[in-house]
Amino acid sequence: MKKKAILHILLLALLSAALLFITRSWWMSLGILMLILLVDALLKQYDAKRRYEWEMEQRKQREAEEMENENTDAADK
């Protein structure tokens, strides 16, 4: 596993233990942890979408620059 994934799992385990200690209720800790996992998944999905859109924008800009360079080179000849 990647180091980042292992750290993520350890953080969630620590958070689970802390919730059990604070709430003293297994069910309440489970509910809070489920909400945290939901928010975590939604944030990962948002970040992946944003990165994809940024990469597409960068690719379009590079293609436009390449086309401009080709047009300039053709006009120079």
Short description:
This protein is mostly helical and 77 residues long.
What report would you give on this structure?
This protein has 77 residues and is an all-alpha fold. 94% of the residues lie in helices and 0% in strands. The chain has helices at 3-23, 26-76. The longest helix has 51 residues, at 26-76. It is rod-shaped. 0% of the residues are buried.
Highlighted features:
mainly alpha; rod-shaped
Mean pLDDT over the residues: 90
Total E-strand runs: 0
How far the N terminus sits from the C terminus, by CA atoms, comes to: 55 Å
N-to-C series of helices and strands = HH
Summarize the SSE layout with pairings.
Blueprint: H1 3-23, H2 26-76
Helix pairs in contact: 1-2
